[in-house]
Amino acid sequence: MHASDVVEPEQITVRVLKYDGTEYRRWKALLTRQEDSLLVLDAKFEYDVQHQLLGEIKRGTQTIEYYWLDRWYNIFRFLDEDGATRLFYCNVNMPPAFADSTLSYVDLDIDILVQPDLSYQVLDQDEFEKHAELFGYDEKTRREAHSAVADLIALIEMRQFPFVVDDLSSSVSSVVN
User: Fold this and answer.
1) What are the residue ranges of helices labelled H in 43-124?
2) Which of 138, 166, 171, 177 has the most CB atoms lying inside 10 A of its own CB?
3) How far apart are CA 104 and CA 12, in angstroms?
4) What is the pTM of this model?
5) Please, are residues 19 and 131 in contact by the beta-carbon 8 Å criterion?
């Protein structure tokens, strides 16, 4: 890592939008690393959340979030209380925008749930198709979303950053892209 890669932690707001621009979710996070197009955030759930696949996500659950300003996906690394990786949750989205301490992105609904052993399951493709019709996704958006799924699967299967097997229980700050 270079000296410019480590940033003084800065609190930012993350905004998740639907394709029509409607805000879907929002939370606070700390920007802990910025390197080229990669932003790494450290966040904690501000309240309990009930998730259909993940079950209850308790208030205080820590995530390390990886966003690339030029990629059609982001990756959340959920941590257990001891810092071990609980799971990864990948979101297919339009490339995010980062300005004025706010990171915003349009969620395109397709997700990939990745277990610590790096087995994975692609989720919500039916929701993507439903919203593609409802919101009128253009051909480029549809194509890029499907390409993002393929890119994520390749990263998982080849155990590339941030899916590095030897590092799954150690601090994320030690991982170099």
Assistant:
1) none
2) 177
3) 11
4) 0.86
5) yes
What are 128's two structure tokens? 């993507």
Q: Are 32 and 42 in contact (CB under 8 A)?
A: yes
Any idea what the CATH number is for the domain that residue 75 is in? 2.40.380.10
Owner of token pair 């706010």: 102
Integer angstrom CA distances of residue 135 from 110, 129, 138, 139, 144: 15, 10, 9, 12, 16
Give the CA distances from residue 143 to residues 93, 110, 139, in Å, rounded to whole numbers and listed in that order.
Answer: 12, 13, 6
Distance CA 161, CA 110 (A): 20
Torsion, Cα 69 57 149 134, to 10 degrees, reads -90
Gap between the Cα atoms of 8 and 85, Å rounded: 24
Q: What is the pLDDT of residues 87-100, one digit of tens each?
A: 999 999 999 999 99
**Closest-CA residue to 66 (of 78, 74, 58):** 74
Structure tokens at 23: 């805000």
What's the number of domains the chain is made of?
1
